[in-house]
Design goal:
disordered N terminus, sugar transport, Growth Hormone, Chain: A, 19 helices, about 75% helix, Major facilitator superfamily (MFS) profile domain-containing protein, about 0% strand, membrane, STP/PLT_plant, mainly alpha, symport
Length: about 375
Amino acid sequence: MAGGGFAVQGPARNYEGGVTTFVIMTCFVAAFGGLIFGYDIGISGGVTSMDSFLKKFFPTVYRKETEKHRENMYCKFESHLLQLFTSSLYLAALVASFLASTVTRAFGRKISMLFGGFVFLIGAILNGAAMNVAMLIIGRLLLGVGVGFANQSVPVYLSEMAPAKIRGALNIGFQMAITIGILAANLINYGTAKIEGGWGWRVSLALAAVPAIMISVGSVFLPDTPNSILERGHPEKAREMLKKIRGTNNVDEEFQDLVDATEAAKRVEHPWLNIMKPQYRPQLVICSLIPFFQQITGINVIMFYAPVLFKTLGFGDDASLMSAVITGIVNVLATIVSIYSADKFGRRVLFLEGGVQMIICQVVYQSLSSYHWQLNNSYQSLSSH
């Protein structure tokens, strides 16, 4: 899942100036925005697989799960209320992303990140202290607003701050933070599930406040991007910021490209109507279908529900959580490879390699799932006789 928006950026030339420590540090801090999304993906599936959590908030699911041989294991987590708990975040993020794009343009990228982190923090506190399903849902909605703002503003910020020659690697920093958040959440779930008294799920949910504080505090000290400063009508401030992030006073060529791009963007009177014109159709199709098909592969579902999926396959509580940890480790390692490869081999190579790999894995996963489903059905039939 990713937020909308675009970066007004000049052509990818080799401008004067190097990769400064200032740029690396600002992009590193900004990438914290990915942690909040990754943490939520990793934490929610583990929490919903904990019996103590289900017993308190979703007792019907807990009863179905503990009543052996009554029905197929795949059906035991079917609950509209549980689905509302999990999906409310994404619905809120979808709505918030439209508002976030306006805020990001009008007030700057760092303000959008700060607001997203602060709202996410409130949602984490509500979830950790939840006494009923209503508090859980409200907390999830606030988490979704935070994710919507962060997912919209952070990739734009990274793209605008990064030098052209390492823009791919720094942009993937956002995805790297997501995968680290997922892995950290999986490890935390594995630990909190062992806490005596059945309140470990509170620790898991409340610890979402940590990445929220990181992005909130970090964004306070972040500078705004030259593009954003230009958009808001402060060319001299934008030039000084560009000098600072590039580490050189000779930024005339890059600055002029930014000015030209900003002015060209302002001259477009009806951007949403304009992009529907035939001459822009290839760009529209590519920009729409690539993220659409990436999401429809179901990877977010697998990462989100990993502990539950492993549990329905017959894994025990500890084994299902540890399997999710292993999945998270593989995810982090694959992202490290992408960071190294993005600028070295190009985006097209990664698209092709990733697409082929996903096709193979989807076939293998579906084959194993179908085999287990048939085996489980056969076992249920034999048990009933």
